Automatic annotation (TrEMBL):
Organism placement in taxonomy: Eukaryota, Viridiplantae, Streptophyta, Embryophyta, Tracheophyta
PROSITE patterns tied to this protein: FE2OG_OXY (PS51471)
PANTHER family: OS06G0255100 PROTEIN, OXIDOREDUCTASE, 2OG-FE II OXYGENASE FAMILY PROTEIN
Name of the protein: Fe2OG dioxygenase domain-containing protein
Family: Belongs to the iron/ascorbate-dependent oxidoreductase family.
Pfam families, per the entry: 2OG-FeII_Oxy, DIOX_N
């Protein structure tokens, strides 16, 4: 990466930030490209405001749910999932059926993709959301205060086992991993449906469609105290299954404690978090989890996030509507949310989502939004 390209990211006023973001995109080298260039301070494009600087989490714990002997323990597992989804919106699964070797191979080949020379990755660099495999970097979330310190290979898995559109360097491991995660997603969908009290004839509402798998790579940061790997955000998904490495840094917001909780890295575990789609569909019976990731100065961090939600058709993003499942709405429990499109759930219909609301997208969709302080 040319020195002038890096220098341009140290802009002096807010008016220069859009130009800096454009120039950063043009390098197609990602955050790792910045690190490889030898920077010793974080460019302003990535710097946090003082009020959003990193903080350590509380000692509270994230539920760990054991899926061993699921057939004989189904009622116990369903209740544990119901409680975790309702109270925190996040839990970890162990003995989930995805082999440790499959997860390790996925991590190893994902790392190979991100750590290969920049020129070998640049052909995948794109912000075209219709591209089925694309490399992007520094993207932010709603209510972001800065660009995230992360590089990501976004993959849209094919419906079949043929994943020929994926980069060769990680295609084999991704194909196997995606197949295993799809199977787990189907099981988890059934368990979440049972946790909501839905019968087999109505549980098709909880999506089993794996829409996107993100291979995330967080390079070491020279000033981790002024940057963040992933800004606080809520997933749009019905639910997300996350594979994280042993580095740590993931946190979830615990509303009851009004504080952030560390999500420890457990060998062989997968993290599950509820997304905005399921909070909407469940009529508030399950909670979308706000989460973030710290930057660190020592070693790279990796994760693979797999998002489950209804199939994405860009031609109907603003017209196909989703709302609370009718079986979960009654006179005693009236609908909390109005129907919404995926465009609304992604926040693209709301240009003014900044502010004090913790979950501004769902807050705007509340039926009582215009009648009360949310």
């Amino acid at each position: 990466m040319a020195a002038s390209s890096v220098d341009s990211l140290y802009f002096d006023n807010a008016a220069d930030s859009e130009e800096a973001a454009r120039l950063f995109d043009e390098t197609k080298g990602g955050v790792k490209g910045l690190v490889d260039s030898g920077i010793t301070t974080v460019p302003k494009l990535f710097r946090l405001s003082p009020q959003t600087a990193s903080q350590y989490g509380t000692t509270r714990t994230v539920p760990v749910i054991d899926m061993k002997d699921l057939e004989s323990r189904r009622a116990v597992v369903v209740e544990e999932i119901r409680r975790a989804a309702a109270e925190l919106g996040m839990f970890q699964l162990v003995n989930h059926g995805v082999e440790v070797s499959v997860m390790e191979d996925m991590m190893a080949e994902a790392r190979q993709f991100h750590e290969q020379p920049t020129e070998l990755k640049q052909g995948y660099y794109s912000r075209d959301v219709t591209q089925k495999a694309r490399f992007i970097s520094g993207y932010g979330a709603l209510r972001r205060s800065s660009f995230n310190w992360v590089d990501t290979l976004l993959m849209t898995p094919a419906p079949s086992d043929a994943q020929d559109h994926l980069p060769i360097i990680c295609r084999d491991s991704a194909t196997i991993f995606i197949g295993r995660i799809r199977e787990l997603g189907e099981t988890l969908s059934q368990l979440l449906s049972l946790a909501l009290g839905l019968t087999p004839s109505t549980n098709e509402f909880i999506s089993t469609n794996l829409t996107t798998a993100n291979l995330n790579y967080y390079p070491p940061c020279p000033e981790p105290e002024v940057a963040i790997a992933a800004n606080p955000h809520f997933d749009t998904s019905t639910f997300t299954i996350l594979l994280q490495d042993q580095v740590g840094g993931l946190q979830v917001f615990h509303e009851g404690a009004a504080d952030w909780v560390d999500v420890p890295s457990l060998h062989g575990a997968l993290v599950v978090n509820i997304g905005n789609m399921l909070q909407l569909l469940s009529n508030n019976k399950m909670k979308s989890a706000e989460h973030k990731v710290f930057a660190n100065a020592i070693v790279p961090r990796q994760s693979v996030a797999c998002f489950f939600m209804p199939p994405i058709d860009f031609s109907t993003m603003s017209t196909k509507m989703y709302g609370p499942i009718k079986e979960l709405v009654s006179e005693k429990y009236p609908a909390v949310y109005r129907e919404a499109s995926l465009a609304a759930l992604w926040g693209s219909l709301y240009p003014d989502l900044e502010g004090s609301l913790r979950n501004p997208v769902l807050a705007r969709l509340r039926i009582a939004y215009d009648k009360e302080v949310v």
